[in-house]
Write a structure and sequence with these properties.
Order of helices and strands: HHEHHEEHHEHHEEHHHHEEEHHEEEH
CATH topology of one domain: Arc Repressor Mutant, subunit A
Protein name: Winged helix DNA-binding domain-containing protein
Largest sheet: 4 strands, antiparallel
Shape: globular
Distance between the termini: 41 Å
Helix content: 40-55%
Number of helices: 15
Radius of gyration: 22 Å
Structural class: alpha+beta
Length: 369
């Protein structure tokens, strides 16, 4: 058997494991917090799209059910792991922040200085935000908090407000509150999440690694370092601490770690419409196996694959898509990277229907572009 054929088989096996572990095949009837907790954290900088990331992994989930879970604080949205928003379960938010917030603050420090934000300013803004939310006894929007800060003489040029609110999140002062109409709000973390016993750092590192390799494996140490925001040194220490719970395999010189699980030899055929920044893509530093080499250049030449909404068949990206809203209908416009079979077209059409139904979007023929 040729080397190329062996590589293809290894990639196929790896992707089948990832699809199953990420709950993208035969998605269970888990609750929203259960699936978010299983994944560890779900990148959600694009709030609207990230809801579909969760929905594709939870059988039968409706948009109303998702929003109820979010508004009731069954999942929270905050800056954790890397310097961007993630959905996270309330039981995980405090120990994850303690573990990853110092790295995020260090990453943001250069831009903080450019904006004139130092520790004295952050101390003042944190106090103002905490006192305001405490007195209000309710959730406040970004603009409402901006008004309070401006009235207190805080300068909010450029994206200073984003940095101020992010710092308050990283300090464990605020997190997401319930929606106010179409607007997201902030709430005091202490009001949404009871105080919890903090994990020792070594235990937190082990817990995060276990969560990641169970839900995202097989993956490399570099993948885990990227996803978690940890240094490579800490990532290696984390893997070493749970090595007895992990299995590994080597593909083309790279070691892939995973929590052993029963993965079927064949996975049911199911098309995926992934939003940008979905965990199946953003969860790994090396995304080359997600694209057949023949088509990799067509996306990489236009920028990082993270910014694309992608169509996935049998684990690999076969095209991109976008939602097109017109006067009386919505449709999904597709740009395949290769010719699709009739069977593949049918699978994609079925997923398009589920997507449009989840958001309760008005549909008029045709539903696909």
């Amino acid at each position: 058997m040729g080397i190329h054929r062996l590589e293809v088989m290894a990639t196929d096996h790896l992707l089948r494991q990832r699809l199953a572990n990420q709950q993208l095949v035969n998605p269970p009837q888990h609750s929203v917090p259960e699936i978010v907790s299983w994944l560890g954290a779900v990148q959600s900088q694009e709030f609207h799209d990230a809801k579909w990331s969760v929905a594709q992994r939870t059988d039968g989930l409706t948009h109303d059910a998702f929003m109820q879970a979010f508004n009731e604080g069954m999942i929270l949205r905050t800056h954790v792991l890397r310097p961007t928003w993630h959905f996270v379960a309330p039981a995980d938010i405090r120990w994850m922040l303690t573990l990853t917030a110092p790295r995020i603050k260090a990453f943001m420090r250069t831009n903080d200085r450019k904006l004139g934000l130092d520790e004295a300013v952050f101390s003042r803004t944190n106090t103002l935000i905490e006192q305001t939310l405490g007195k209000a006894g309710r959730y406040l929007t970004r603009m409402e908090l901006a008004g309070v800060l401006k009235q207190a003489g805080i300068r909010l040029e450029a994206n200073a407000l984003a940095h101020i609110l992010t710092r308050a999140e990283l300090e464990g002062i605020i997190c997401s509150g319930a929606m106010q109409g179409k607007h997201q709000t902030f709430a005091l973390l202490d009001e949404r999440v009871p105080e919890a016993h903090q994990l020792p750092r070594e235990e937190a590192l082990a817990k995060l690694a276990t969560r990641y390799f169970a839900s995202h494996g097989p993956a490399t140490v570099h993948d885990f370092s990227w996803w978690s925001g940890l240094t490579l040194t800490d990532a290696r220490l984390s893997i070493e601490s749970i090595k007895s719970e992990l299995a590994s395999e080597t593909i083309q010189g790279s070691t892939y770690w995973f929590v052993p699980a029963s993965i079927p030899d064949r996975l049911p055929t199911r098309a995926l419409l992934l939003p940008n920044f979905d965990e199946y893509v953003v969860g790994y530093a090396d995304r080359t196996r997600l694209l057949e080499p023949t088509y990799a250049g067509e996306l990489s030449g236009q920028g990082t694959i993270l910014f694309y909404k992608t169509i996935v068949l049998t684990g690999q990206i076969v095209g991109t898509w976008k939602l097109v809203k017109e006067k009386a209908r919505c449709r999904v416009e597709r740009q395949p990277l290769r010719a699709l079979t009739d069977c593949e077209e049918t699978q994609i059409a079925e997923t398009v229907e589920r997507y449009l139904a989840f958001y309760e979007l008005p549909v008029d023929e045709p539903v696909t572009g």
